[in-house]
Description:
68% of the residues lie in helices and 0% in strands. It is mainly alpha-helical. It folds into 2 domains: 2-244 and 400-558, no CATH class; 260-379, no CATH class. Helix 21 runs antiparallel to helix 23 (534-571). The radius of gyration is 26 Å and the shape is globular. 42% of the residues are buried.
Amino acid sequence: MEKQSKKRRWLIFAVVFAVIIRIVLQMGIPVMILGDYSVDDKLFVDYAKSILESTWLGSYSAYTLNKMPGFGIFLAILKYLNIPYMLGIMLLYCFACCIFLVVIKKIVKNDVISYLMFVYVLFSPVMLDTQVSQRVYRMSIIPTLVLLVVSSYLAIYVERDKGYKGILPWAVLAGIAYAIFYIIREDAMWFTCFVFGASGLIICLIFFENKHKGEWRKRIYSALCLLIPLILCIVGVTSLKFINYRNYGVFTTTDFKDTYYADMGKEILKIKPDEEKEHVWVTRDTIDTLYEISPTFATLKPELDKLYVYMDSWASGAIDGEIEKDYIMWAIRWAADTSGVYQQGATYTNMFYKQVYDDILEAFENGKLEKRDAIILSNLARPFVFSRDFKPCLEFVGTEIKGLVGYSFYKSGLAISQGSEDQIREMSEMISTLPVYEDEYASHYLKNINMANKITKVYQLTGYLIAVIAFLIYVYELAYCIMCCRKKKKASIADWLVKTGILLTIFANLLVVSLNYFDANNKDFASNLYTAGVIPLWNIFVCLCMVTFMTHLNRIITNAKEKKQLREANLQ
């Protein structure tokens, strides 16, 4: 008992020490204050400011329901508690890593190995990256939420035989993290696949594994606990819709879901242009045609034509007088805003877009417009033509996989503030962090930045080797399960299915990002930022493969010892 107590104290001390080192390292890395990112970083700060002023997301405009407000709520909480931004995201991430340690310790049952896996996840390069952890943007807490949800489901998987009392706390934690994830990101469906898959697997195991063990009533209670994450998510999303309805009159989470703006955008993308142009999803000719077939849309012409001139120099915006990628959808919103549509309120705005939507449908029916031979994935994704886009899409997934296992996308750096002085000051005050204006002033951050990049370099140098080893273990485990089935021996195919589920979830995210950005000229930036959520999944997959290796190695050593002892006994 005293020996176990000593080991526990040692582990706690080691964990606290690692967490302190990690926080100190992060606090010495500058925050990138992008005051001129009006629909991204600055938007969430505006959300937080409005929430603290008890005006929800502020007065209704083209910016109000642009994004899910979850990250703005997080910033408001940090400001209310007077916690600096970098400290806030790191405390949350360290908490998730500690939860992972508790769970992996249940699986490994070895303090040293569990601790090494904890450190491996704690210093993961994704939370040292300029675009992920240094920006005041929602992707900074996505790795944390993914780690919490997956760790909780692993705990449920391990504790599934202990009844609902063992499952309930982990189901609640998974539900809270999953609900927060859902009100932060619009593209949460890829992660929803994991939640459904993990829940389904565990429910099957509860009912069909060890059929004669335990009471059926307890099994039903345990299975019902797996509904808690889904229920909490539904409650969170529905509550958000009700709040938006009460404040703005539209029952939705954002303008890009469940509104006529979203429907109109998809219909616009369906329109076949006179000529397909690289990186241009909606051509100027298509916009001119829309002016003709929709009198309502034509009211935006003066302001939208101005944006064609303005966006010629914005984010590589125009190619030969065109607005590229999904920027056209933002341009339409801004044109409607400056034309006075949004000033009439959300209900009027929604009906405005409905009229344009109806005009487009009528034009399709009477032959004035011709449809593209393409799949419309969303109103912010390029129309997908299988014969043209399948190969480059898969190639981009391959690029993402290389970046994932080799950590090649991630790097810390000096983060010089951007935007007007008022924008920078407002963001700085809201996140309780001093801005960085000049390279000379930022030089005192170099020590921590260099240290962070050295840590990332270790992951980069070992990434491909670890990936090969992990994949070989994964394949070996499948082969072992097949062999045991043929010999009618007991083998846990469920462990292999858990790893498979994680890999499929990783692929789902990479595919979603690829479908949205494979045609973009900033796709490397997208790979860096929007795949941040899969790094914890990959880290967990590697850890589980190492657990499998140690388990099978221990089995082989034990069998060898038993055979040796048997031979010695026969000789005697």
